[in-house]
Design brief:
Elements: E1 15-21, H1 41-49, E2 51-53, E3 56-57, H2 63-72, H3 101-107, E4 111-117, E5 165-169, E6 181-182, E7 185-186, E8 192-194, E9 206-208, H4 214-235, E10 241-246, H5 267-289, E11 296-302, H6 332-335, E12 339-342, E13 351-353, E14 357-358, H7 361-370, H8 386-390, E15 402-405, E16 411-415, E17 418-421, E18 445-448, H9 464-479
Parallel strand pairs: 1-10, 1-11, 2-13, 3-14, 4-5, 4-10
Antiparallel strand pairs: 2-12, 5-6, 6-7, 8-9, 11-12, 15-16, 16-17, 17-18
């Protein structure tokens, strides 16, 4: 077993780097999928140096609620967002009184940074006399540009959620407005407009900053992440740091940059995964160059499963490997994701864990690792898995159950090998999204993932006792 951080005589707590990919599927990690057509050498190397989890789950099968869960340690259905995602003009989802992981780390003496896709809502400055905010603001059709003062400050965003430094885009890279925001100020106001783009690029039309292109965003974000690490190395070497890096890949638009075109056997989608992997490699190389690699916990994961509409299946590649379903679905392909942790001297290299963990657990685990105090009532759905990382737990399972959530608000609960869903359809992108229950028939599904990991044999009618138990447990968790 590796030494504990304390036994290595460290003079300060470990740094933290969290990389949250956008729509990166379980089977897109090459070392996890022997049939992958996409090379991911940097993430594979990270897994060889740390621990790879095979049963890690996002709090939701779509991105905004998962990102909320990571930052707050709360399932997002406890917020106003009970289905779907936010859009580019949506108001902030994180209430000011809810503790966030970066704010907790700030109080523990950390310098914190967020770089990349935000997608948790922003409070834009309003034009004087512009009238009421449009009623359709939480839809893709909203265009309230006449109401926004893009030259004014962004009143709430990552800079008010615990991050000392931030450089973000408002939402996904297919959602207007298209602009960079640094520390609560728009870098270049989005005074130009761009039209809709068809697939495979695919973005929605709307305001865009002059000179900004969709293809330029990912390289710029990677550059900003590496510059933060260098700046911290030069100016604050005695202070630990936490950097959250939120790449825009491999989500739409599928426009890999020239160095990565043709580098996979999987078209534009696969080349985008290669570009994401190279971005991870650049961050790892910067940690090495700045001398921080040995005292930095690096977590690389994804906000949900892969979207299978990217054309990858036509190349014989299964982005979600053997898992059923895809992004947005209640099935495993919607929320079981790659999850890698490297913590030199604590996590044994090349280990694989089958512990069931959730994205919300990053909050408690990081706080546990650095000795930070979570405020009373904070992170209620977060369970530390540090004992899995350092090998001190008697068993591999640290949490009793995990609650899953689909795009349309369908719930499922996982307890040991059992998984109960409250709906009969997928709840997401895969048809049928909904299935009406028959009179006196099952209203949900029950699978034993130990015997049936592909979720092919519904046991609802055969195990009524388990159905009743899991429904009670889910109701209890939702009621807390």
């Amino acid at each position: 077993m590796a030494q504990s951080a304390e036994n290595r005589g460290l003079t300060r707590p470990p740094n933290i780097v969290v990389v949250l990919a956008d729509d990166w599927g379980y089977g897109d990690l090459a070392c996890q999928n022997p049939d992958s057509r996409i090379p991911t050498p940097f993430c594979d190397g990270l897994a060889n140096q740390g621990m790879r989890f095979t049963d890690a789950h996002t709090g939701s099968a779509v991105c905004t609620p998962t990102r909320y869960g990571l930052l707050t340690g709360r399932y997002a259905w406890r917020s106003r967002l009970t289905r779907g995602v936010l859009w580019g003009y949506s108001a902030p989802l994180i209430d000011p009184e809810v503790p966030t992981l970066p704010a907790v780390l700030q109080r523990a003496g950390y310098r914190t940074a967020a770089i990349g896709k935000w997608h948790l809502g922003l409070e834009w400055a309003r034009r004087v006399g512009s009238g009421p905010w449009p009623a359709n603001i939480d839809t893709p059709d909203a265009d309230p540009t006449a109401h926004i003062d893009f030259t004014g400050p962004v009143l709430r965003g990552p800079h008010t959620a615990g991050y000392d430094r931030s450089f973000v885009i408002p939402a996904s890279l297919d959602m207007a407005p298209y602009c960079f925001i640094r520390d609560g100020r728009i870098v270049t106001p989005p005074t130009d407009r761009i039209d809709d783009s068809p697939r495979p690029q695919y973005w929605r039309g709307g305001p865009i900053s002059p000179g900004l292109t969709h293809a330029s965003v990912m390289p710029r974000l990677t550059q900003e992440a590496c510059e933060f690490l260098w700046d911290h190395h030069r100016t604050a070497t005695d202070q630990p740091f936490m950097m959250a890096f939120y790449p825009t890949l491999p989500h739409y638009p599928h426009i890999p940059n020239l160095p990565y075109q043709g580098k996979s056997g999987c078209g534009a989608y696969g080349d985008g995964v290669v570009e994401f992997d190279a971005s991870v490699g650049a961050i790892l190389a910067t940690l090495e160059a700045t001398g921080h690699a040995e005292n930095t916990i690096v977590i690389v994961t994804s906000d949900n499963g892969a979207d299978l509409s990217g054309g990858q299946a036509g190349f014989g590649h299964a982005s979600n490997s053997w898992l059923r379903g895809q992004k947005a679905d209640i099935h495993e392909g919607g929320h079981r994701v790659p999850f890698i942790v490297r913590w030199p001297g604590v996590v044994d290299a090349g280990t694989v864990s089958d512990a069931t963990i959730c994205m919300t657990d990053i909050f408690a685990t990081v706080a546990d690792a650095v000795g930070a105090t979570i405020p009373k009532g904070g992170a209620p759905d977060s369970v530390s898995f540090r004992s899995v990382l350092d090998g001190t737990s008697a068993g591999t399972q640290v949490r009793g159950s995990v609650v899953h959530h689909s795009m349309d608000g369908t719930f499922a609960i996982r307890s040991g090998p059992w998984k109960l869903s409250t709906g009969l359809g997928t709840g997401g992108f895969t048809a049928p999204r909904t299935i009406e229950a028959t009179p006196n028939g099952p209203t949900g599904t029950l699978f034993h993932l130990g015997d049936d990991p592909r979720e092919t044999h519904d046991l609802w009618s055969e195990w009524p006792g388990e159905v009743a138990r899991l429904r009670r447990e889910l109701a209890d968790i939702r009621g807390r």
